[in-house]
Amino acid sequence: MLFLSESDIEAALDMKDAIDTLEMAFKVHSEGKTKTPVRTHLDLDTVNGIGLFMPSWVEPIKAMGIKTVTVYQDNPGRNLPVIQGTVQLFDGETGTPVAVMEASYITRLRTGASSGVATRYLAPQGASRAAIIGTGAQAYTQLWAVLTAVPDIEEYRIFDIAQDKAQAFKEQVEKDFCGVKFRVARSAAEAVKEAQVVTTCTTAREPVFLYSDLGEKEVHVNAVGAFTPQMQEIDTAIMKKADKLFVDDFEGALVESGDLIIPMNEGKLEKEDINGEIGEVILEKKKGREAGDGLTVYETVGMGSLDVVIARAIYESALKNKIGTELSLK
Ligand SMILES: NC(=O)c1ccc[n+]([C@@H]2O[C@H](COP(=O)([O-])OP(=O)(O)OC[C@H]3O[C@@H](n4cnc5c(N)ncnc54)[C@H](O)[C@@H]3O)[C@@H](O)[C@H]2O)c1
């Protein structure tokens, strides 16, 4: 059995490969060729934590796996990451465990790549300005994915309610992505004003900017943060007025995403306002961005099949490139 640490995974798969891999994952998901129950969610109230268990079987590549992660909101004060865990990967033909991998980087990589896939299909043509709201653990791969999907981005505006975090993030990405002008904005509204691709990856419980802040331009929004029914980072008017609103997983999004559930409970959004899953766009069953579309939105909550497909791609690359540590269960 192969053990893969965070640095092993980083060496095994880059963002372009991760985005290409997830295109396949979204396709097979929307074709119904995976078995992915809605994740088991354990509320650990006494420790301000959540346990998430995400199994999946992906028929076309005969892969099974489970990601187990904890989300402990007080961990930054302990100098520990909010999200920690492992992915176990099995050989689907024999049931043999073949790999255990660090899950936090896999989560960041696949969540970024998920927005990268949506950005490929929904961003306005020739987009050159982007914005990111929230500069926590997910932010780096989100920004990297947008820059990979839309290579013409020239200016990236950055906002976080913690301005020192936004500044530190700017200094980090400036070193890694030359040729892009990064600016820290004074508000989320200022960040998104000119942006044609906007990503929100915050822990907010209220919308982080308003529909009117986006203006009348063509713009695509990746909404990443709201993964519980109580969380909402996207203004209801943005959801309602979007020309196209896609999700990663219809079933999961409707039970987990406050961006959808809160306006639906208020009678301000209907299921019919959701155009479908991003996999249906890749399968050409639904249209992505078309001429005349102004605002498009991608709402993602994540699903286990993405982790299993990406884990399998990492495992195969690790075997090929001799990355990782062999362990024996005997
Ligand atoms: N969709 C998915 O598949 C997926 C996967 C992983 C994580 N997530 C979710 O994405 C969100 C971000 O994750 P993370 O690990 O980066 O969290 P994090 O706690 O590391 O960072 C969140 C950042 O958001 C900022 N923030 C909070 N409210 C804000 C506001 N109103 N305006 C601007 N900034 C604000 C915080 O200051 C912080 O820097 C979380 O809710 C997480 O659960 C979603």
- What is the averaged pLDDT score? 96
Intertermini distance: 10 Å
Bound molecules: nicotinamide-adenine-dinucleotide
Q: Structural class from helices and strands?
A: alpha/beta
Please tell me what the overall shape is: globular
- Taken as a percent bin, the fraction of beta residues is 15-25%
CATH level-3 fold name of the largest domain: Rossmann fold
Number of self-contained structural domains: 2
Explain what the structure shows.
- It contains 12 helices and 16 strands.
- The protein is of the alpha/beta class and 330 residues long.
- The longest helix has 20 residues, at 103-122.
- The chain folds into 2 domains: 2-107 and 305-326, ornithine cyclodeaminase, domain 1, CATH 3.30.1780.10; 115-302, Rossmann fold.
- Strands 1, 2, 3, 4, 5, 6, 7 and 16 form an 8-stranded mixed β-sheet that branches.
- The structure holds nicotinamide-adenine-dinucleotide (NAD).
- Nicotinamide-adenine-dinucleotide is lined by residues 82-83, 107, 111, 133-139, 159-162, 165, 188, 201-204, 208, 224-225, 227, 300-302.
Summarize the SSE layout with pairings.
Layout: E1 2-4, H1 6-12, H2 15-30, E2 34-35, E3 40-44, E4 49-58, E5 63-72, E6 83-91, E7 97-102, H3 103-122, E8 129-133, H4 139-149, E9 155-159, H5 163-176, E10 181-184, H6 188-192, E11 197-200, H7 211-214, E12 219-223, H8 236-241, E13 244-247, H9 250-256, H10 258-265, E14 276-277, H11 278-282, E15 295-299, H12 304-321, E16 325-326
Parallel strand pairs: 1-7, 8-9, 8-11, 9-10, 11-12, 12-15, 13-14, 13-15
Antiparallel strand pairs: 1-16, 2-4, 3-4, 4-5, 5-6, 6-7
Helix pairs in contact: 1-12, 2-3, 2-12, 3-4, 3-12
The chain binds nicotinamide-adenine-dinucleotide.
Nicotinamide-adenine-dinucleotide binds at residues 82-83, 107, 111, 133-139, 159-162, 165, 188, 201-204, 208, 224-225, 227, 300-302.
